[in-house]
């Protein structure tokens, strides 16, 4: 109790109370003063409680404090009788009642402030049902509930923002960055507007672009709807498959089973369900209720200190000693009837535990079977999506397995044949290598024999002669075939020429007659030409105007197509530039030009560096080139001198002996 009072006095002396109490002065406070202190603490939690209790009736004070403590979820210790004493103590200002309340309030002031603030908006006003029959009252109540739900969501978002770690400085920086980005975008839009205003029919193009954007948004909305419908269809197909599987299993069970076995299975299932409903589930529900009651009791109790824990431990030890004493007394009695009953009780408890364990195993097996069926349906859907084929079942799978076995036997036979062929191929390859080696040895021996006899190369020459003779025979055969082909071609050409001459003979006769008629009618043609010249001049002028209009039409059509292409390029460029995809941004013309500019700048930088290196090495290189030219001239001079000297000296001496001339070098 002294620790409790010390804690209360310390907190009352701090902000925002500043009471300047000590233990003696606080303990000597009168009941009215103590109630005023409690009211001040409640006023700090809820500002509506700022009241001078001297100007208020005691019943109203107690009612107001009790309602606030109920909102704050304060639960006084004890049962219903203790609640009446608690109310009386609160009215008269009893210290054993006020001190725990002050201690509980001062321990969690911030939490209680938040709870009191939320209570102003979240405590629902209960409207009688007879008033809700009125439509206006019902609509107002519904609107009130919607506003309450909206307040809950907004408060959660506010708390999340408070705990998210965002500081005001970061938010301000983000806002300033967004404003700068907004200004840049406005400037960019203005530049684009000025650039677009120079283009002809820009209003029409902007209208078309706006329509295009609307259609794209509509296309995205339709694509989203399509995806949602696909998902709904997928779920519906899954449900249909599950129902079909259940129907198949039920039909299979109904077809294979007799009525007696079916009834027996139903009876077992009914017994199992009856056991689960009457024994297992009520026990579990009762245990959960006890656990919930215990947890609620733990939550409702105030925070426990070290002394309270020691007291609880001592109580637990006392109860354990009493239980041990009772067990010892029971064992000392050792009544035989109770021993037999305990044996039966043990057997019954063992059987009930086994029953519960088997029921749990059966429940787990059913859940596992349901999960496996769901996995099978998912896998079948996946296989159907991948290759579009159905999963084989039952007899189809057996036929597939038998077919696969026959194919595997055929495969084994073929594989064995291939292995035999490979072994034979290896053997033949080895014999080929041996024969080649033997042939090389024989050739080597033949060359040595030819060298000994003085006719080296005889065998090679003979092989070459045979090869050349074979080639000559092939060439002769080809010449004969080409001559035959040429003679046949000449015959065909002669026949074609004769056919064309015979076909053109009547045409040539008609042509001669027409030439004679043409010479007679030249005068008439000139006369008609002179008459038609006047009409031709008018037609020519109209034809020129028609050509000019047609060329103007084609020119305007080409200009329209060019403008459409430019508009398409501009929209694609804007789409690629605004897109968040890096691949699309790389396709933009601006990105390509910036990339080309960067590449050209790098190339120019490299060329400037190369130019600088060339300038630095220009002088030494020119000097070295001059030295090489001088060296070349010197060597050329030496060469000329050597050749001149060689031409002046005699190449040799002619000696005549015995009627013969000899040249001595």
TrEMBL record:
It holds the Pfam family IFT81_CH. The keyword Acetylation applies. Residues 3-126 form the IFT81 calponin homology domain. It is found in: Cytoplasm, Cytoskeleton, Cilium basal body. Residues 137-246, 309-382, 560-610 form a coiled coil. The keyword Transferase does not apply. GO terms for molecular function: tubulin binding. InterPro entries: IFT81 (IPR029600), IFT81_CH (IPR041146), IFT81_N_sf (IPR043016). GO terms for biological process: cell differentiation; cilium assembly; intraciliary transport; spermatogenesis. Keywords: Acetylation, Cell projection, Cilium, Cilium biogenesis/degradation, Coiled coil, Cytoplasm, Cytoskeleton, Differentiation, Phosphoprotein, Spermatogenesis. One of its GO terms (cellular component) is ciliary basal body. It comes from the Eukaryota. Component of the intraflagellar transport (IFT) complex B: together with IFT74, forms a tubulin-binding module that specifically mediates transport of tubulin within the cilium. Binds tubulin via its CH (calponin-homology)-like region. Required for ciliogenesis. Required for proper regulation of SHH signaling. Plays an important role during spermatogenesis by modulating the assembly and elongation of the sperm flagella. Belongs to the IFT81 family. This is Intraflagellar transport protein 81 homolog.
